[in-house]
Amino acid sequence: NQNYNISHIIARLSRQDAKPDVANENYLIFAKEDSSELIDAWKFTVDVFIEDKDKITCIELKSVKPNSTEMRGEKTKILQAKAALFREFPNKKIEFFIGFPFDPTSDAASPTSFDKNRFMSSIINLNNYFSSEEVLLSSELWDFLSGKKETMEEILSIIRDIATPDFLNNLEFLKNKSNKINSLQKYLYLLNKWHLKSEIELLNYDKNLLEKIKSDERSTRIYNQPIFNPKAVYNRSRYEHL
Question: What distance in Å separates the CA atoms of residue 161 and residue 109, rounded to the nearest whole number?
Fold first, then answer.
């Protein structure tokens, strides 16, 4: 029955006989046990999956310029996923969003601002299949993910601090662990500039760390690893171990 209702919802949206309506769609697909035959739901993945005490939240992250034919398939997948999640977590509220990292239609002078109505109208078929309450856009998305305000502003500020003309030189400097001893002041300055609070924490406890791991060969090897891998990705597992 859920599968039939999903097909009916998509057909009506495709013909524009109905507008996206989350409350009505949920009523149709969050059906309690009935006598209809069970079938397998579509296999699906989700970019963000959050399980709280009384709620499941999923977010599918999208390009700001999706294909014109993508919206129908995305909506069908989400309805199928919501029905499956409702069966898996029958006592929890199920929420599913699509998220766009920024609004390309906004004023370039204010990269964190957004106009959801304007943005949704700029994407072919988006308004046909999704209501505004299903869309997380720009700073709205980042604040939702972090649980605090002005997250996107903080991210952009960090990027501006790091992405300078001397980025590669600074990267090589930090990758060279001997600079932690020979040029400590500059090393600490760059850690602060690049917002590497985890490395500052390790540096503050460096003497205690060395004392504790001196007889632990595995931990010593991890301690001596560079803080960035060859692709310039921060070595998070090193920090977590230490």
Answer: 18
pLDDT tens digits for 27-50?
A: 999 977 667 788 898 899 999 999
pLDDT at 193: 96
Encoded amino acid at 175, one letter:
K
Distance CA(140)–CA(233), nearest Å, equals 27
The three-state secondary structure class of 59 is strand
Kindly state the DSSP code that residue 44 receives in the 8-state scheme. -
The residue-averaged pLDDT of 105-116 equals: 84
Residue ranges covered by each domain of the chain: 2-148, 164-241
Per DSSP, the three-state class of 93 is strand
| Secondary structure in 3-state letters for 105-158 | CCCCCCCCCCCHHHHHHHCCCHHHHCCHHHEEECHHHHHHHHCCCCHHHHHHHH
pLDDT (0 to 100) of residue 38: 87
Provide the 3-class DSSP secondary structure of residue 38. Answer: coil
Residue 68: CB partners within 8 Å, gap ≥ 6?
124, 125
